[in-house]
């Protein structure tokens, strides 16, 4: 492979370009694009009850709350993580104990909870979820349903070590 | 009264009664109420009542409801104002009892719900409007300046309340809510223009109640 011949003018131009681009931030080192951790949502922790028990389903069920739990950075699914769920439903207010329950993620980091239908409260049909087991930083989510008629709501966690 | 005036009075009173009545009826029979306890139901309805009263307030202030003398209109305006204040207090207190952290978030302007800031601003505007009304004649303000301040704060209450209500997915039915909010904002601007509040020469001087003919 022939080495390209550079004349003096080209060398000066390249040097000048490098001089300008270097400190300007136009050239950045290649960096692994890690998965960013999920921040807590505003109002996510409202009516949170620490230590809600792990349950098969909340109340009579009929509505599905589902999502995934992954590790920040490499995005590896996190199995066996405890997620707490509560909402204003057809069976109770957010503050009622029987509106709260917890479930564990499976080996793919997926969790799913059967719970009563979420109904609009405080102006929006929304649910609450918490990760608070301590191995990773605590995260509170407050997803809003696009329609009050939905029978399913998703929320995804990306956790960073505590 | 001519037939035209009678018809006009009938239309004005018809709208003034029918739209709030429809909005209240739908809210009071909302299916969502089945899943709310009495305190939450009362809190929500108090909010609807406040919106209805805020629609009436500018019409009473302008004295443009047919058949009501300026004196009577103003007296009702005072009592209606007191009821707005009471309704707002019941609304906020009832919501507080239902879910304290959600109300604290709203009052600290950090709620995730986009409508909450409209409600918080409207609430403070109602408090300020009422305070100014209570201190009428006891402040070093010329009557016209007092009226401009009272009107500005009242406009903020009405616009804030309407903006708050339309964004909420709650017990109010969508169409009757939109019509009521539109009428409330429309009535407020109508009163401002009708009384020529910012004009050098207003339609009516801001007279004290005792100076009005009964």
Automatic annotation (TrEMBL), chain B:
Record-given protein name: Ferric reductase
Subcellular location: Membrane
Domain called Ferric oxidoreductase: residue spans: 46-160
GO cellular component terms attached to this protein's record: membrane
Keyword Manganese attributed: no
Keywords: Membrane, Transmembrane, Transmembrane helix
Membrane topology field: Multi-pass membrane protein
Source organism per UniProt: Roseibium aquae
Residue ranges of the TM segments: 7-27, 39-56, 76-97, 117-137, 149-168, 174-195
InterPro entries: Fe3_Rdtase_TM_dom (IPR013130)
